[in-house]
Amino acid sequence: MKIAAVRENAFAMPLNNPAYPRPPYKFYNREFVVINYRTDPEALRAVVPEPLEVIGDTVAYEFIRMPDSTGFGDYTETGQVIPVRFTTPSGRVQEGSYVHAMYLDDSSPIAGGREIWGFPKKLATPKLSHEQETLVGTLHYGSVLCVTATMGYKHRELPLEPLAKAMAKPAFMLKIIPHVDGSPRICELVRYYLEDVTLKGAWAGPAALQLFEHAMCDVARLPVREVMSASHYVADLTLGLGEVVFDYLQND
Predict the structure, then answer these.
(1) pLDDT tens, 204-226?
(2) For this structure, is 121 an active site residue?
(3) Are 183 and 228 in contact (CB under 8 A)?
(4) How many CA atoms lie within 13 A of 83 on its CB side?
C-alpha cells in the first residue's frame, strides 16, 4: 500500500478492517435511567480535572440501553457524570457535565468512543431491565457485582422542555492517548454536544442506588450519601463530534 493510500484510508485501527465505521452515529429509542445523588465533595474535587470546576456535590449515575445505534449495534452502557462549569478563553461560563466513568458491553463503541472523543470506556457487563413495576440496573465487572440501581416504573410523567434544555448542555471528557514510549502523546479536554434530539417520553419515580468497591471498577470512589431524584426517558439523537477546548501538553 502506497503512503498516499495510507493517509487517505487511515481513520481508525486496524487500517484495513477498522473496529468501527466513520461517524456520525445515530441512536434510536435510546433509553435512559438517571439517578442523581449527593456524594463527598472532596472526592468530586479529586477526580474532576482543571480547568473544569465542580458544581455542588452531586453525581448523575446513568444506565443507557441502546437497542439501535448506527455502526455500533445493540448495547448497554452505564457510568457516572458530574455537573461542572467551564470558562472559555473569551470568559464565557458554560455549565455542563464531566464524563467520569463508563462501562459497556460492546467492543466497537469502546474503541470508537475512546479513540475519537476520549470517552472513559471500559469493558464490563451492565444490564437494564424491566421487572414488573421496577426498572432494574446492574453492573458486573467480571463476576463481581459493582452497582445495583432500582426505580419505580413511570410513576409521574415529566415535562419534556426542561429535560431537552439539560440535554442541550455540553459534556466534557479527558482524552488521553500515549506515545509509543509510554509518555502522553495526546492529553486534551474535549467538549461535545448531543444533536438532533427527539424526546419521546420522560418519567420520574422513587429510586435506590448501591455502589460496591472494586479495584478496577471504582464507582464507589464517589459514594452515595443521598439519592436526590431519578428520571427515565427515551430519545432519538445523534452523537455530535467533539472539539478540543484545552490542551494539557501545550497550556500551562
Answers:
(1) 999 999 999 999 999 999 999 99
(2) yes
(3) no
(4) 14
Given 2, 121, 175, 200, the catalytic residue: 121
Amino acid, single-letter form, for residue 77: E
d(CA 59, CA 224): 9
User: The domain at 22-247 falls in which architecture?
Assistant: Beta Barrel (2.40)
pLDDT tens sequence across 157-207: 999 999 999 999 999 999 999 999 999 999 999 999 999 999 999 999 999
- Say if pTM beats, i.e. exceeds, 0.90: yes
Domain boundaries, the chain: 22-247
Q: Alpha carbon of 82 to those of 10, 15, 37, 97, 188: distances in Å?
A: 34, 35, 10, 5, 18
Give me the numbers of helices (H) and strands (E) for the chain, helices first please: 4, 16
28 CB-side CA count, 13 A: 5
Chain Cα centroid distance, residue 75: 14
* CB half-sphere exposure, 237, CA atoms < 13 A: 20
